[in-house]
Write a sequence for this structure.
């Protein structure tokens, strides 16, 4: 069985830190899935790209760049979460998927704008199920918001609220 999890507000509080919620390691070791796939929409990456492309001459661009993180910073933060999980659950395989990665890696489903520019792939943003392209009905999605539940339904997998799955420590 594979467990898909939305990263933010499911196992960590935000993209700005990577400490795991209490009980995450213990629960994953108890359930012992063969694989855990972490999912993130990365709205900040997409919005930063939009801002940089559309406000090139704006004096506010410097401020907007500070607010909206770029892909490298998000990757570093996600790597921190992955490292914490791998250290605490050495027998489980972990993977992370972000909506913007579909464009960077040329994944099928990421579409091209008519003028040839790569665009943010809506198919790979939750609540669409593009990031769960390899899910089966036996898999589980653990999430913290309605968007996560809709994503699970669209992918055809079971859903469990994170606060119920991980317990009161979450």
């Amino acid at each position: 069985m594979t467990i898909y999890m939305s990263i933010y507000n499911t196992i960590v509080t935000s993209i700005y830190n990577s400490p795991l919620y209490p009980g995450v390691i213990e629960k994953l070791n108890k359930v012992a899935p063969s694989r855990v796939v972490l999912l993130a929409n990365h709205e900040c990456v997409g919005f930063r790209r939009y801002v940089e492309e559309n406000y090139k001459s704006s004096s506010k661009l410097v401020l907007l760049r500070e607010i909206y993180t770029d892909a490298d910073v998000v990757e570093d933060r996600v790597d921190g979460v992955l490292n914490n999980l791998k250290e605490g659950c050495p027998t489980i395989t972990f993977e992370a998927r972000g909506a913007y990665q579909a464009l960077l890696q040329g994944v099928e489903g990421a579409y091209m704008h008519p003028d040839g520019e790569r665009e943010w792939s809506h198919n790979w943003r939750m609540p669409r199920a593009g990031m769960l392209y390899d899910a089966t009905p036996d898999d589980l999605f653990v999430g913290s918001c309605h968007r996560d539940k809709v994503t699970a339904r669209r992918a055809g997998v079971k859903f469990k609220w994170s606060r119920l799955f991980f317990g009161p420590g979450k």
